[in-house]
């Protein structure tokens, strides 16, 4: 219940407030595999919030769908830590396949605002996030 409230409801409300305040371009970090019909809660909520944000009616909406985020966390998440360790090694061989550093996502978000858009809604999957994050 808390996850849904924070990751869907609060984000959708923030988008509505931003639009009411004059925001023309909204950038949303979602997740690889986001799908409002998914059987997995995480992916379903991410897909639902994508639809809700698009429905707000921004002139432009950029949705980033990163794979596993590589970052250091303060809180303990043992399973995520193990996945990050494994994917950190895999990333040396296949850098854009299964993970992305959070710094790359942040740079891609900024670049998406500074560059001309490719339509009203642009969805950037992990590979595109890596490319744009280099800019």
UniProtKB/TrEMBL annotation:
<protein>
    <submittedName>
        <fullName>Oxidoreductase HTATIP2</fullName>
    </submittedName>
</protein>
<dbReference type="GO" id="GO:0051170">
    <property type="term" value="P:import into nucleus"/>
</dbReference>
<dbReference type="GO" id="GO:0005737">
    <property type="term" value="C:cytoplasm"/>
</dbReference>
<dbReference type="InterPro" id="IPR036291">
    <property type="entry name" value="NAD(P)-bd_dom_sf"/>
</dbReference>
């Amino acid at each position: 219940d808390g996850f849904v409230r924070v990751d869907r409801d609060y984000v959708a409300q923030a988008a509505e407030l931003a639009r009411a305040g004059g925001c023309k371009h909204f950038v949303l970090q979602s997740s690889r595999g986001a799908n409002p019909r998914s059987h997995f809660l995480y992916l379903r909520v991410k897909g639902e919030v994508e639809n809700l944000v698009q429905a707000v009616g921004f002139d432009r909406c950029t949705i980033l769908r990163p794979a596993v985020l590589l970052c250091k966390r303060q809180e303990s998440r043992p399973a995520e830590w193990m996945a990050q360790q494994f994917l950190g090694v895999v990333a040396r061989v296949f850098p854009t396949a299964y993970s992305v550093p959070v710094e790359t996502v942040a740079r891609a978000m900024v670049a998406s605002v500074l560059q001309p858009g490719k339509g009203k809604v642009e969805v950037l999957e992990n590979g595109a996030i890596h490319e744009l994050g280099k800019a």
